[in-house]
Fold:
Amino acid sequence: MTRDLIDDRLIGALHLRAMDRSAFANDSELSHTAFQVGTLNALMDGHFGGDATVGELLAHGDLGIGTIQHLDGEMIIVDGVAHVVDGSGNVHSVTNDVRTPFAVVCRFDPVAHTELSGPHDLAALHQHLDDLAPRHLSVLAIRVTGEFSDLRLRSVHGQRHPYPSLTEVTKHQTEWAVNSATGTVVGFRFPDAVAGVDVPGHHYHFISDDRTVGGHVLDITLLDGVAQVDGGDDLHVELPADVSLGDPSLADRAAIKAAEGG
Ligand SMILES: [Zn+2]
Structure:
């Protein structure tokens, strides 16, 4: 119903459509479209509760990244299965009833792929994925499987009311180094024009094939693997009742970089 549609914008080439939870639940599942719950700005401001569930998120995609209620770790979705890496670095599966304040998924249908033989550091990996991406796509979904080394990963511990800001939480984030791992990097690349709605630039999470290691990627080197990208110009965002889309041009990019850089 159109009254559920609360914001519909064109930002550069990106078509951004924001809606409430019921409209999101009924939103059709489309290829080459990113579906998001919450906004980064709301997460920065300590909205760690969320209203949509992981089950509702998974109905719109099988590949993605985000967090879960109370900011209780870094979530990664691969092949339709959600895992969370908690603040101690432990990897758990996530049940469908868990809520998420911020996550983005897509029905991964790669438009391009390439084999990469490294070593490629994180900057080189960004460049290879940018080169692989068709020029016209504004939102890019990324999946890289293979052998990795020199991983620096982070997660955060769950928070209690009253929630602090994300910047405050990430000052106390847990980081760990992993020498080598076989696994999957999942990520997105968003244009700067949607800063605050999501993280501008590349944002990756990692999970090992044996599901014992994972987290938000601060640094990584690809030794050998396959990179795939999907993408499009459509981003559908579910907004909890107390969250607004905001004005991306006003986003605090330095704070975003400090909290979500990697
Ligand atoms: Zn992250």
The radius of gyration is 17 Å.
